[in-house]
Amino acid sequence: MTLSGAFLGLFYLVVFPGFAFTAVVGLFSSWVERKLSARLQWRVGPPWYQPFADFLKLLGKENVVPQGASRIGFFGAPVVGLAGVTLASTILWMANISPGSIFVGDLIAVIYLLMLPSLGIIIGGSFSRNPFGATGASREVKLMLAYEMPFLIALMTPVVKSGGLISIGALLDFQQGQGWMLGNASCALAFTAALFSSQAKLGLAPFDISEAETELIAGPLVEYSGSALALFKLTKAMLLAVLPILLITIFLGGARTPRTPLTYVLVLGFFIVLKNTNPRVRIDQAMRFFWIPLLALATLGIVLAAVGV
Amino acid sequence: MSEATKGLIEQVKEALGGKAAEFQLESPSRLYVAVAREDAREAVEGLFRNLGARLVTISSVDTRPGIELLYHLAFDRAGLVCTVRTIVPGPSPEIESITPAIPGAEWVEREIHELMGVDFLNHPNLASLILADDWPEGSYPLRRSDG
Amino acid sequence: MDIKKWGLKKSPWVFHLNTGACNNCDIEILDCLTPRFDLERFGVQLVTTPRHADVLLVTGPVTRQALPRLKHVYEQVAKPCLVVAVGTCACSCGIFDGSYHVAGPLDKIIPVDVYLPGCPPKPEAIILGVRKALNKL
Question: Would you call C64 and B134 a contact, using CB atoms and an 8 Å cutoff?
Fold first, then answer.
């Protein structure tokens, strides 16, 4: 790899469409989520710079480490999540912008990388030496076991439908030729399953079980403060920017058309409205929901795709 | 006062007849019964079990003859509150606890023990409840003699 | 102005601590955080752990039983942190002054930035108090 190639890669990773771009879009999306929630609750809501102010404020606070907690695990956890979501976003956007430039199988890589934020939370909660942190981490583990299965099956449905293309670029070309994946019945079912699984992945009500404020203090983040907490919050915001783009790329024809901001806001709007109209469910209710109805839906989708519908 | 309430008061008088030193109807819905210290537990438990009264709370006052304990029992349907009062005399007052029969009285008696110094015999758990961890033993704040 | 200070001014996360209050002030603080007064406009969020807090809203005259717990919570808060004494009891013990179980008003134990008298202070007064605390930064 040439030096200029390395610099270009670094630029893609750090500035656009990697860390900086995703962070800004993520924090804006986080503001949209709060403002829309406020409007749905008949209030005014925060100004547009609010998530940025939160982030900057957290950077200025001291980092307190609980006595007896391992520093490596405690500080490594937020970095793991941030790295995962940054890399996933870079790959996803690069696959959208220049489809040939990424390796085959990048879809699998993106899905794998998007598991790292939840892993970061689990590690962070477990290394906090706090019973609330441990309980929150265990709930996050259970939730992951619940929603990852329908999510994976749903995301594999377009792959099966297109005849085995596991490269995002190839899927985009397929949709270019054959129309949106969402137009097929199997993929419509898969899209629904993926939407609900994404709600759990983002940690939004009714599936915000691990960080259940009224029950678990702050769940896995209970002992975090300062810059480590800032990284966790930033990771959550960036996930809010990446997941709708993933769904749009796979199901709705790709993210490089001028229509993309509209579809992005619509998907985001679905998450927000679902968040504001539902109370939190218990962890066993969530597991039952993901393993029985949603898994059946996703499986039906992939079976129909295999049959050719 | 309704017929039902009058009937209820008669029932109470009958249940406590031998033990009660005096009955006092302060108002149509307030009945006060004074009993001796030894009979207090039986009286309260009798009203709770046989007549279906509900224990509201137990209050205590530091009076000249000793610490007076008032067990407030409510007959909700009739709108009558019956108070069984008893005096626990002495520098180390003690009385039988009603907690084994009425579990809801556990913390109330703990509080009275902590603030007034009344010892409740057969109480399952007389640990400190409200006062600070380093509060001096033997100092009972709500007694008249102390602060 | 320093950008982190700007962040702190625009995004104060409050933690509420009751050191033996009668709950009246706590109810008013809860009122403040309801949609009617919409404190999220100012970036105020109620956090559930002292580690995430920027503003500590303390109610109640500090009872002797709450004293070690209050000190513990204050140590746990990630600095910089503002302390607001909400209600007359936190400012000066109120009617409980000299009682057998009161360890003194709040400023005897932790440094206080804003005093909010009132029994209880109205939600508007609480909002004003938090704003004044932030303007001090």
Answer: yes
